[in-house]
Amino acid sequence: MAKKTKKLLKRSHRTLAKGQAPRAPKTPVLKERNSEPVPESSLVFDQRLHPCLGFIKYLLPPFDSDEGGRDRLATAIRAALPCEAVSIFFVGRDDDQKTFVLKLRSKSGYKETYRDQRFDLDQASSLASYVYRTEEPLNESKMVLSQRNEIPSSPLKFFLPSEELRNVLAVPIPIPLTNALQNCYCGVLQCENRAGKSKDQPFSDSDVSFAITLASVIGMLYCQSTYTGVWTTWAKHRHKTIHDFAEVLAYNVPSECASIFVKETSGGNSALRYSGGVGYKDEYEKQVYPLTNNPQHFTSWVATRLRVPVRYTEPELLKKSEAGEFPYKGTCRENIVSKSFRNLIAIPFI
Fold it and tell me: pTM surpassing 0.70?
């Protein structure tokens, strides 16, 4: 045991033996840097953030069936800002288990009719869907919103007790990934009617910083909880085949399709062979991608040339292929049961 630790223990024992209360630790004092005072906004920011962090656990998957528990985070954010209403949406499968929507997971300050809100990702009348698609924070006053017809803000006022929308702050909830997979989001944090602000005033800059930071923390913990849930599900799975893992992967991403290709070597030649998947036509199970010095398929190109995760929409794939950056023949939708192809994530095993 270190000498310093022993001295501290002896001092504590002597204090308690005398019947005295132990001395409280010294409170850290914020010092000025270069003789400049600490900005007041930074102090307020810390004070508002901390009370919210303890309630994030109620929002994480597997989602708490107690709706009151889930709403604690939105209530804490609403009090911290403060503002009239706060809602938090996460991307998830709709009831049909096929389409993906923004589901309301936590709310505070709305009318009862707002309880079970969910929006299609491309829904034109939803502000949350708009922010999710644009992948940019939105902080506008009613005056500015009335001049920007592309932002669907009008329906919001019908769910507010005041029945008036003065301003709105909405930020996408990011997923922390590698540099190759930046700008991925799992939901939206939305706040309406900042206290003390009129209809021609947006939320303050410190409010925006607070919301962006909190959204980042929510996204990080959401991913950690999701990853834990995936591996817990996999550990309990009865069969544990590659096909079964593809099903678990597709359900938790979530995505319509998921396939896993494994490297095989025979006679000195290597190739990626389809080993399991979900959402594809039966004939795709015979798919093989040769691994050569000059790969002719996108899958083998990711595995041999790029060797890092990638994320593209189909228009991006076509554009890069036309520019000669990599081979893509535009045949993805031919292998999918729904014959629909919008985007993909490809991750090589290294």
Answer: no
